[in-house]
Structure formats: structure tokens, C-alpha cells
Queue: 2 jobs
Job 1
Amino acid sequence: MFALPKLPYEESALEPTMSRVTIATHYGKHHKRYVDSVNDLVVKKSLPAGSMEDLVRLAATTGDRGLANNAGQSWNHGFFWESMAPLPTLPGGALAAAIGDLPKLREAFLAEGVGHFASGWAWLIVREGKLEVISTHDAECPILLPGVTPLLVCDVWEHAYYLDFKNDRKSFLEAWWDRLANWRFAEAQFAAAQVSSTQGGSGWRYPAPTA
Ligand code: MN3
């Protein structure tokens, strides 16, 4: 059984940018439902025991849309909670050096997130050693992309911001980047990407299931 990963802060810790009500709904209802659905599918389909990463890859191999959506969303949300911190941070060290022009990266990230049509995710990633901003659609999980290690993600599904920003995704993304982005986490992911660029083979992992 997979558990809902523990939030790295209190539900009210990201206020006022992300309200306690948004987190309670997003984490306690949306994310929980994806994880519950994965657990149900594992039992119903007698899927092999393994990690969430294994299930994301299995679903891609077998073309199982239900499993792909729920395992992908479970993973992406786990990564999303780690991508935020209660107090504003800035990139430092090797990551700051690799970024260079931070305002330019901010602009690219906002453009990607605002421009992504309908539901999805805006990511800062390392691909083959290079920083890149990409978006994935619906439940698409970056561990399936060859040579990619994600550093940060912002959820741009409406459920991530509608209660706090209504339909204003741009203001949400700006506030998210300026006040919530967890650059300590991004630095750790960046360091992990240097060690190994095998797909999903390094960096954050979804907590292992308990028997
Ligand atoms: Mn979400």
C-alpha cells in the first residue's frame, strides 16, 4: 500500500500565497484520491510489487491509461509539495551558476506555465546536463522522459489555484515563483542529476509502499 506522502510543512504554512483551504483540498482530497486509486488498481489488477516509479513505467509500457494517470498524478503531486517552502529562497551554488540570468529563467517558466493549454505541470528540469523549462500535460510524469531529472514543478491544474487566484494563472505562477519555489530542494535535485542522468534514477523518489 502506498501512503499519501507527509507534507513537509503545515497546511497553513504557505499562506497567503497558497491558502490552508487550497492545500487541504488539493493534498487531502485530490492527491489522496490519486494514491487511493493506485492502491485499488494494484489489488484489482494484481500488479507486481514495486515502487511508484515502477508503476509509472509499467503503465507507460502496457498502455494502461488509468494506472498512468493515477500513478503519474501521485508522483507529480509528491514532487510538487517538495517544490515549495514556507519562506522565500533563492538558488545558490552550482545551480545558481548554471542558471545565470534568473529573471530570464523566471520569464521562461511563467511563459511555459501560462501558455500550457488546460491541465498540466510546469517544470524546471535538467536534460542531458542542461537546464530546461518544459510542461507536461494532464498526468504526464517526467521520469518517463529520457535523461531528465526534474528540479521544481508547479501544478497548473485549476485545482491548484482557483480558490486563491480564481482563473488568474499568471498571478498564481508569479507568486509561486517569487514566494514558494523551494530552491534548496532544486539544488539537491540538481546535485543528484550530476551523479546520474539515468531516467528517474536519481533524486527524489515517491515514498516506498508498506506491505
Ligand atoms: Mn494537482
Note: The mean pLDDT is 95.
Job 2
Amino acid sequence: MKIKKLFIANWKMNHGIAETLKFITQLQRMVLPTEKTEVVLCPPFTSLYTVSVALDGSEVSWGAQNCSEEEKGAFTGEVSAVFLAELACRYVIIGHSERRQHFQESDQLIAKKIERVLQCHMTPVLCVGETERQRSENQTFAILKKQLLEILNSIIKSKPENLVIAYEPIWAIGTGRTATAEQAQEVHAFIRAFLAEKLGHDFSNNVRLVYGGSVHAKNVKSLVNQPDINGVLVGSASLDADSLNEILHQMSD
Ligand code: PGA
């Protein structure tokens, strides 16, 4: 198991270039506990170049929130993983529930995107998670299995060690209703056991499993103290540099 915890900031459609620069200037004045935590900023595409220049040589890395499943060509408005690699992105978030919900991304499409990210030597952050209704109907594990199966089939030969899976219960995203540490641990343990069953223990022990959904400075510690929670994916609480810094210190204590 990798030792450093992972902190991924998902800015969604927030922070254009001016705000990104302001954020980074604030960040550069802070002492981030990067010896204990790997920090990744995922700004909108249009801020990536700015981030890549401003953070070049620093301990903080960056990633994108999505990419095309295609390599290049006549796909108006799409962004190739090749271009993201060119911007020195280390991570690409794939299959976020907002993309599944608003852009009809299917498990098949998500599996193709994951392969594309891996081909470009970046780390995919695959997002999975159930709705409130699915949880209340005891469907959580069945939904997760379905979301994972397609992807596992496509990586069964390569078994990429760098895969990250983010468990993000949809009912906890942007709602202020975080899963309890026990609820999150239960699901993470299930995911790890499922990965072991399909691709073996060596693989499953190397995959980093992060939790996302209303994470903030007050709840992060109990989450990352769980044995199968290797980090967090943070949306709104990562938009402010002070809040991000506080979360990092809480999780690194
Ligand atoms: P949130 O978003 O932290 O604002 O709930 C998390 C996410 O959607 O990745």
C-alpha cells in the first residue's frame, strides 16, 4: 500500500485563469504538508496551462476533470488525453457522477476513457457511487459492481497499478451530507474485495481508494483514518486556499 494519502481538488466549472492565479499565489505562501499527502489540483481545462506553468517544479501536481475517449480528429469541442499529457497532467478524473448524469456517460464510454488515459501514461481517477434511492433499496453494492465490471474487463490484462477509484455517493456530493466514516469504510472494503476477486490481491492492494462527497476540515480526519480510505476527492471545500490548507493539515496530523 502506498504511504502518502491522496488529496484531489475537483474545482468543477469554477475558477477561471484570474481566480486560479490568485489561488496559487495564496497556496505558495502556505506550508503544505506534502511529505504526508499528495496534493492534486483539477481546475477547468482552460486553467490547466496556467496551473502547469505556475506549479512547475513544485510538490503540488495537477489533473483534468474529463477527457475524450478519442485520440484526435473531428470531435468538435472535445479534449484529447494526449493534450492533457502535454500539459504534464498526472491525473484525469473520469466518470464523475455529474458527467454520468448531465452528459449521459455510460460505463462503456468511461471504460474507453480510462484506457485512453492509461495509454497516455496518466492516472485515471474513476468515480463510482450510488444514488440515495439505490442506497435505501440496498442496491449500493450491486450498483458499484455494475460500474466497476466494465472497467475491470478492459484493464484485466494491463492491471494498471496507478488506478485510483473514488467512491462518491451521489447523495453526499454538494449536499453537506457526508457519508459516515463507517459507511465509507464499508463500501471501500467492498470495492477492494471485489477488485481482489476479479484481478487479484496484489492489484487490489495497490489501487488507491479515495472518498468524495461533502468532505471538509471537520470530517476529513475520521475518513482518512479508515483502513481502506487512501485519500479524498474534494469539491466545494477545495475552492478556497485556506480551506484546502486546513483539510490538508487535518488529514496529515
Ligand atoms: P463536494 O464535491 O465536495 O462539493 O461534495 C465532491 C465531488 O463532486 O467530487
Note: The chain has a mean pLDDT of 96.
